[in-house]
Amino acid sequence: MALNLKKLREVPGRIFSIHEVYPALSVAPEHSFELRGRVSVSGQAVHRDRAVFLDLRIQATAVQKCSRCLADVISPLDWEERLEFQPEESGGLLEQEAFTYSLEDTELSLQPYIVGLIGGVLEPKPLCRPDCKGLCPVCGQDLNVGECACGARHEGDPRLRVLKELLK
Ligand SMILES: [Zn+2]
Ligand SMILES: [Zn+2]
Known about the structure:
Shape: elongated
Bound molecules: zinc ion
Distance between the termini: 56 Å
Order of helices and strands: EHEEEEEEEHH
């Protein structure tokens, strides 16, 4: 599914509605999240002053790994995003947030942008819970489940906390 750029540009100022559902979007490995289930994108598109403006509502469920213990962190997302696409040939400095489209294109596919937008609203270092104790750096034991037997001291170790307070 893609926006019909030709139609949009033929009738400047006319509002076209968008409703797209992606049953499954694949996420490149350089992104540190996955998507669970479908992604829904709805909203409006308008062509004005040679630019294409999109008002989108994006609904998706992202799965990340807890930055301390690697458990799944599931985030249901539902937010609104305003995008601006300027023609490539516009020259000069573009608004910082603007994307570009080619004047030769008849279609504008939103799909390549969706994963990046989702990545932009996710917590870079998610936690499964605010007080996640993480893994023992020595033996890998999940400290949320219980203390490990390897004898290593941990971040959450009360003795270490006292020491940290003293060093402040
Ligand atoms: Zn965790
Ligand atoms: Zn340990």
